[in-house]
Specification:
By secondary structure, the chain is of the alpha+beta class. The protein is about 25% helix and about 35% strand. The protein has one domain: RRM (RNA recognition motif) domain (Alpha-Beta Plaits, 2-Layer Sandwich), CATH 3.30.70.330. A hairpin with a 2-residue loop joins strand 4 and strand 5. The radius of gyration is 15 Å and the shape is globular. The protein starts with a helix and ends with a helix. The model has no long low-confidence stretch (mean pLDDT about 95).
Length: about 100
């Protein structure tokens, strides 16, 4: 799997934006990706040094629209913490 296949998109929420000050970034990642693969993909894509990776499997939520009902897709979220001497990710810097 390539780095582009592992990291799908950044998660942009109030809580994830608050973590940027401590160099903690949140991404949606491939369900089959492990922590080591996620760390290598971040280092390759953003040219940073990763200190720690935490992952969470997010369950799909029940939704209704009129008579139709179903579940949103489940996905995997990764919290990536960078080392203190690492540079910040430029993509997130423009959002603050």
């Amino acid at each position: 799997m390539t780095a582009q296949d592992i990291i799908i998109r950044p998660v942009i929420t109030e809580k994830s934006m608050a973590g940027i000050a401590e160099k903690k970034y949140t991404f949606e990642v491939a369900k089959s990706a492990g922590k080591i693969e996620i760390a290598r993909a971040c280092e390759e894509l953003f040219k940073v040094k990763v200190k720690k990776v935490n992952t969470v499997n997010v369950r799909g939520q029940f939704r209704r629209q009129g008579r139709s009902e179903g579940y949103t897709p489940s996905w995997k979220k990764a919290y990536v913490t960078l080392t203190e001497d690492s540079k910040a990710i430029e993509f997130f810097e423009g959002m603050m």
